[in-house]
Request: fold
Amino acid sequence: MPNPIITAALTGPVATKADNPGMPGTVAEIAADARAAYDAGAAVIHIHLRDDDGNMTVDLDVARRTVEAVRATCPGIVQLSTGGLAFTYEDRMKMVEAKPAMATLNPCTMTFGAEEFRNPPKPMMQLAARMIELGVKPEVEIYDSGHLEMMLYLVHKGLLLAPLQVSFVMGVRGGMKGDPALLAYLVRELPEGTSWQVIGVAGANLPMTTIGLAMGGNARTGMEDTLTLEKGVPAASNAQLVERLVRIARSLQREPATVAEVVERLKLSPELVGSA
Ligand code: KMH
Ligand code: ZN
Reply:
């Protein structure tokens, strides 16, 4: 079993500092949190942007400044989100122009809690093609079994290249629930050599990421996915969540992958990975 890639999802498209004061709220705070998460064992830093007033944004200048700030602060691999619920798809697509080493690719439209998460097929495929041009590695986010079929179609069309990097998102209202039987099915359907993890949202976070690790997957945590350490106990920081995940991985005798291992395994573009 290869060493698990640990991802820290520092910020998200829904919760803000108002929901947990330990969440970063500016470019500088995101960079500082990335360093702390890296020091705790995360190799990949997944980011939804915040401007200097703490607002969610998909402004390309903020994206460039964020990529630069994180790269200057730590060697962690920057993964920008092209998701988000409040912005047009065209604006979200521009995130890859900031040239992060990785960015998310959400293959299908869906209900997302009280919102609509729009990922129309045509621009989604344009985004996939643009990522190939720029050498930005997609993290494909699968919220339902049909999304996996769409991913395989993109592979067939040459819009996604091996090695694939996949997240199974469990616990969003409108997508799959956290259920080990569903996970077993999805993992079985993956092409040989695919790297995968569970994104366990809210109550699904701890059990499903632990099960994913035990099954040989990678793992992600952070305040995008859960604001609490346990019911009623807010997480103090993203680093605290990463520390706990690393403890779980080590209890399962799995040592977190280094940045160099991730670059090699996912065939990331070396020029897009920082060296701070
Ligand atoms: N919070 C995720 C489950 C992405 O980052 O591309 C949804 C999301 C996807 O925002
Ligand atoms: Zn995200």
